[in-house]
Amino acid sequence: MRLVVILSLLLASACGGDAPDEMSGTPPAKAEEEAGAKAGEEAEEKKAPSTAEEIEQLVRDLLEGASRDVRLVASVQLQKIGAAAVPALTQAIERPDVRGGSAAWTIEVLGVIGEPSAPAAPELGRRLLRGGRFAQLIAWALGRIGAASVPFLAEALSSEATATRVYAADALQRLAEAAAPAADQLIAVLGDPDPVVRTYASQALARMPSASARSVPRLLEATRDDDDSVRHAAGTAIATLAGKDPAVLERLRQMVRDDPDDHVRATMLDELDTRLGQDPEALDFLRELAALVEEELGLARKARWMLLERGVDDPDLVTWASKTEAGTSFEELLGRARGLAKAGPNGRRAALPMLVRVLDWAPDSEDRVAAVEALARLGKLAAGDEKAMQALGVHADEANEKPEVVAASRAALEQIKAAK
User: Fold this and answer.
1) Are 311 and 325 spatial neighbours (Cβ–Cβ below 8 Å)?
2) Highest mean pLDDT: which of 227-241, 311-325, 387-401?
């Protein structure tokens, strides 16, 4: 319930108590904030009213309260009442004279109550279409209400006001699959003149697998959008919805090669990381990237690690991955060793001294445990390495070592002996 108080205090800072139809841009003084917080805490402690008359009085206090504290107490109490307060709140929001701060307080309470506020969704939808300064708050409340709000949010996507379309698309993407009935409208606004609307629409469709047959073709087109954020969202969406489709994989590869934005290229390579296999075509693509001179993009580095993790035991790759500089963190050292351990015989041999270094010198016991576990997985190779076995033996019997490292080291020694 503490969240309820915080939300109401934020609203109290924005909406004056003495002038319901005016917004106050001046934050309350510290004394007023403390008084509001105290009022909110006291409201939490009160027993929630249960009779219709008590609820109606609270709604009147919410709409017409003479002070911010009165409204805050009414807001918190109505939120605690929940579904039973929705009819009175719905009647209030349907009144044409409820505007400005009074409307904002009511909308916030309905949004916090959430799904039970579905009866208020039609009026909130009408208010959203009218736009205005509370459009974002209304869209948030509709998103909190959930599936019952989807038709009204979908209708708002056709608003002439850019801000309204942005807020509606954002609310729909937060609803994920529950917003699937609005998929066709979201697909349509992939052509919206505003890039923020197009971005939110792409993100929303990414969370609607039931509409993927209709959305993926248009999302593929959106990966050629002029806006970087739209291409990023659309590329992530097609990877999420159809990441095994050959046409999608090819488009992701093209984006990694050709997109003008470095962040888009890097993200699409991340998306491919979990989807590319070890077939010759995939490995050739990664070798192409690994050879890039523009290593500042990070693509060459990422591609090299992807090759190593796919068991490509190339001596040049192993040499590159084994190089460390002064100041290399133990976390990075551990990550490099783990990657090398997946590569093959050359990589595993290169990983051994790096893991021993982490085990002997890393200050974080979690890193030492991870190094021990990685050494155990090397089995016979670790068994034949004198330094590795010596390090494990020391940490298995070290009196001042952390218990979890001692236990892991002893278990590793048993596992390695069993692998001989």
Assistant:
1) no
2) 227-241
The answer to whether 141 and 108 have CB atoms below 8 angstroms apart is yes
In our burial notation (b when 16+ CB lie closer than 10 A, e otherwise), range 133-142 reads ebbbbbbbbb
Q: Which two tokens stand for residue 199?
A: 């971005």
> Vertex 39, ends 33 and 40: CA angle to 5°?
90
Q: Name the residue with tokens 């008359």.
A: 53
Q: Kindly give, in sequence order, each residue whose CB lies less than 8 Å from that of residue 140, ignoring residues fewer than 6 positions away.
A: 111, 167, 171
Q: How far apart are CA 262 and CA 231, in angstroms?
A: 12
Rounded to whole angstroms, how far apart are CA atoms 337 and 362? Answer: 14
- Give the separation between CA 68 and CA 63, rounded to whole angstroms: 11
CA distances from 321 to 2, 3, 360, 373 (A): 50, 48, 21, 20
- What is residue 261's DSSP assignment? -
- Helical pair 403-419 and 365-377, crossing angle rounded to 10 deg: 10
- Name the band, by pLDDT with cuts 50, 70 and 90, for residue 344: confident
CA separation, residue 339 to residues 213, 268, 349, 351 (Å): 37, 21, 12, 8
Q: Which amino acid is at 303?
A: A
Q: What is the spatial distance between Cα 408 and Cα 243, in angstroms, rounded to a whole number?
A: 38
**Digit-coded pLDDT (tens) for 243-253:** 999 999 999 99
The answer to whether residues 284 and 257 touch, using CB atoms and an 8 Å cutoff, is: no
pLDDT tens string 37-55: 554 455 555 555 568 899 9
Q: Quote the CA–CA distance of 362 and 334 in Å, as a whole number.
A: 10
> How far apart are the C-alpha atoms of 4 and 1, rounded to whole Å?
5
Nearest to 354 by CA among 373, 369, 335: 335
Whether the CB-CB separation of 117 and 110 falls below 8 Å is answered with yes
Give Dmax (Cα) for the chain: 84
Residue from 223, 217, 327 nearest 267 by CA: 223
Tokens for 370? 């991870």
